Fold HSPB1-associated protein 1.
Amino acid sequence: EDVKPFTPEKTKEIVMSLQQPAVFCNMVSDWPALHWNVKYLSAVLDGKTIQFRLGLKTVDLVPQFETRCSYVEATLEEFLAWSCGQPSCLSGPFSRYEYSKYWAYADYKYIARIFEDKPEIFQDIRWSDFGFPGRSGKESTLWIGSEGANTPCHLDSYGCNLVLQVQGRKRWHLFPPGDTSFLYPTRIPYEESSVFSKVNVANPDLKRFPEFRNTTAHVVTLSPGQVLLVPRHWWHYVESIDPITVSINSWIELDADHEARVEEAITRMLVCAIKSAENPSDGDGWLNPTEVEATSHEINLQYLNKAVSAYFRCQKASVSEQACSSS
């Protein structure tokens, strides 16, 4: 178990070429980040508050999108007390949310932002073992959840995804890109780089979404010390199945992202234009909380201009590279 099954070079080759999800075992046994349980992180953060998203444990036919959740600012100490049912929670930020009825999720937490005053902690995460030298906690995201915490089924427009499980287990429901039409994709709620499914994968409404029957789910339970590769454009619904879960992920950039950025810039421009035409002030129902605000048409055009320029620069570089290699 002390010997890693693949060299960094071989691992990168697998990550960049594999078209199926895969679980890497025995690749991170020497990573200090494996000690990042909630108790440890609570001590490191020392009373700093982070935002938690709260959703109901009851399973509805409709996905529990982030626009339909509640939000609280709390310390990890308060989160631990709440998830253990301690009396101190009766007056804290979680006091309105009964543990038996709600789950809590601190998601999309950029490690560089949370630990900006403790940069040495970034080195606890060593994506260099996967063939990405220099990539550490600075380019990673932290996810802390209670039992039942989940992410609605979606695909990421950019890159592929490496996910390290640190504490507790998470169940991943993965669907190949070929299943896209069966998952009834939507851009509302709007979030750049995320395409959501209208189907609640945990409790599908087959009367409304009959084509969902044609999907092929790949289900994997990720345990501490394992790393999951989610290839480009694979749909995923993720749920915490233990009382407390901690995961760390990093999105790996791909050449195909240049084209995806152009598509995303066009989508942003269209979504913002349509919604502002209806009611410029009514952004709450359609804008995902991860998106700070609806951007103006001028700014969206700037995004599109930059994306198109970057795409053509990449194409030009690729053509030059091919000409050099052939000569």
User: Anything to note?
Assistant: The first helix runs from residue 8 to 17. The longest strand covers residues 102-110.
